[in-house]
Amino acid sequence: MPSRPSPEPSQAHEADGRARAREPASSRRTERPRNLVLVLGDQLDLEAAAFDGFDPAQDLVWMAEVDEESTHVWSSKQRIALFLAAMRHFARALRAAGRPLVYTRLGEAGNRGSLAAELRAALDRLAPRRVLMTAPGDWRVLQSLKAVVEQAGLSLEIREDRHFFCSVREFAAHARGRKSLRLEYFYRELRQRHGVLMQGDQPIGGRWNFDADNREAFGPRGPGALPPRAGFEPDELTLETLREVQTRFERHPGSLEGFAWPVTREQALRALGLFIEQRLPLFGRYEDAMWPAEPWLYHSQLSAALNLKLLSPREVVRAAEAAWQAGKAPLQSVEGFIRQILGWREYVRGIYWTRMPGYAEVNALQATRELPAWYWSGDTDMACLREALAQTLAHGYAHHIQRLMVTGLFALLLGVRPQQVHHWYLSVYVDAVEWVELPNTLGMSQYADGGLMASKPYAATGKYIQRMGGGCAGCRYDPAQRVGERACPFTTLYWDFLLRHDKLLGANPRMALQVKNAARLPDEERAALSRRAEAIREGRVGACA
């Protein structure tokens, strides 16, 4: 990261608003606060339910930066920096709104390193009458904070997270009695309940789903001119955060070059407006397309702002629907985008909270291999993976097809233990919070839940990646070949995957034909496939020397 001039002392004091040499008035109170309102790093919303009835004369807000949230999985620098910069800007917003705040920063003397330890010390010091918060997005954090509050002789009041269209209780009612859960039925229920893209009780356009009109590739000429990234120049507070992360977390993966994520509510709203105006019209058509050296394409890049609660999904859906109503975006793009927000995002949250904690350990395919070390460096000679990994480490970002059908697909076919894949995704992506990332990884990407979320594994050969623009023309491997020195590792591993899991996959109606095709391969080719697959698994193929 290039060096930047340090702010003047007065600027630094203004930037973080802390002046720890002088304790803020809120922490010098002699009276016991009525309520201590806990705010986590992904709850940056002044209108959150935890603030209902907030009285500045009686109540306090508590926030803490701790090393554990960056080290329980080895988080990338981009991810750490985004959370810290957004938290620090939100602390400013709280103070500007007149809400007394107790805020602990990473570098403060006496920082105890974990949310639990910091909260325990705060409860001892402040002795609040009640502790409350908006429902968190991480099972681990919830259990930890509940235990601390109960040990202090108090109870933790947990309020509904209004950022979602569907409560966990409503999802549980939807799921009750179903052997499998499918997005399509749930999505239709939410469309009807909230009147989104509806005309009476029927979907606008006469169809619930416009996938048949979407998901094209760019073709051999590529995407052509693309809108610029909706980036935001770091202000002094963000620059200070970047310097601190670079120093404190120097050994963590990734780079802070080009950090430009929205870290305030105002920036997030601007990013939403730019997406609606510049990218939404072609989003649906190219939502599954890839192209080398083009990380942003027509994707919204809004998931991090949504997951930090800088944006509300309701305002995002309203903005997309309004664009269609105004004739600024076609229905196929608008429906495809809204399905990601109103459908998939709500769906994975429901699965997470109705299936935890056991869901975190599912492993239906009994996958046991280690994640290749080059996932942390990008040192592979497979062009599509090298591209996706380099982009991930540079920006903390990859779009959903790069995650599902490149990095995730390779781990699935290789037979990596799904929990290792989950930890890697949680580590490297700026939008990764566990409630959304874990089901996407274990259920959709790795088929570790045995079909609860997805009706079949998302397994494919290298031909799929080639068709969607994955950079195969510049790769040493041929996606059409499954054996031999030039055989694409994806293609080899796909056929090996079918043979290794023939009983399980053969019982799946959507996979039975592929399994039968694999069973028809000549014995010598099956043996060659097995040898080549083992060479890939041992790192003798695919890893850079």
Report a brief summary of the structure.
This protein has 545 residues and is mostly helical. It has helices spanning 9-16, 68-71, 77-96, 115-126, 139-151, 168-175, 183-194, 236-248, 265-278, 280-283, 303-308, 313-325, 331-355, 383-395, 400-414, 418-428, 434-445, 462-467, 489-500, 502-506, 512-519, 523-537; strands at residues 35-38, 60-64, 101-104, 130-134, 156-159, 198-199, 202-203. α4 packs parallel to α5, α7 (183-194) packs across α13 (331-355) and α15 packs across α19 (489-500).
Count of individual helical segments: 22
Helix content: 40-55%
- The first-level CATH class name of the largest domain: Mainly Alpha
In CATH terms, what is the fold-level topology of the largest domain?
Answer: DNA Cyclobutane Dipyrimidine Photolyase, subunit A, domain 3
Number of strands: 7
Descriptive report:
- The chain has helices at residues 9-16, 68-71, 77-96, 115-126, 139-151, 168-175, 183-194, 236-248, 265-278, 280-283, 303-308, 313-325, 331-355, 383-395, 400-414, 418-428, 434-445, 462-467, 489-500, 502-506, 512-519, 523-537, and strands at 35-38, 60-64, 101-104, 130-134, 156-159, 198-199, 202-203.
- With 545 residues, the chain is mainly alpha-helical.
- The strands form two sheets. The chain has a five-stranded parallel beta sheet, sandwiched between helices.
- Strand 4, helix 5 (139-151) and strand 5 (156-159) form a beta-alpha-beta unit.
- It is globular.
